[in-house]
Amino acid sequence: MSITAEAPIPGTAMAGHNRISTQALTSVARAAAGEALGVPAHDVRADWSDDDGLLALSLVMPVAVPNLTAVVRDPGRVAGFGGSIWERAVAAKAEILRRVTELTGAQLSRVDIRISGAAVRGGGRVH
Q1: 104 Cβ neighbours under 8 A, 6+ residues apart
Q2: Which DSSP symbol is given to 53?
Q3: Tens digit of pLDDT for each residue in 29-83?
Q4: Residue 40, helix vs strand vs coil
Q5: Given CA atoms 33, 37, 40, 44 in this order, what sign does their dihedral have?
Q6: Beta pairing class for 54-66 and 108-121
Q7: For 8, phi and psi rounded to 5 degrees?
Q8: CA atoms within 13 A on the CB side of 52
Q9: Which of 18, 31, 64, 85 could be joined to 41 by an S-S link, Cβ 3.0–4.6 Å?
């Protein structure tokens, strides 16, 4: 026996509900954060808390940095990585919030980032 469903009529709401698990939200947040600061998602720790009914995301992660010897020879390499660690973390907060909201539909109140280390990368732009 097979069961078929009729295609929904565009613009019509379907009965039922959708839920995104905390694990799925966490995976999306880790991936977005890793992309934003140039590190693998598995190096990112993400925790959620309630912020007056919205979700607050706290991240602990390293950040990709250029080889410091190369920076001494060519200070422009810092700009090639997107600026200072501080500038990149500030910009990443907005990017992560936007990306997680776009992909999951969850409403985040804020993103907090704590940089836990540095991952030396040889390239220029990390995005």
Answers
A1: 20, 24, 25, 28
A2: T
A3: 999 999 999 899 999 999 999 999 999 999 999 998 888 888 888 888 888 788 8
A4: coil
A5: negative
A6: parallel
A7: -65, 150
A8: 2
A9: 31
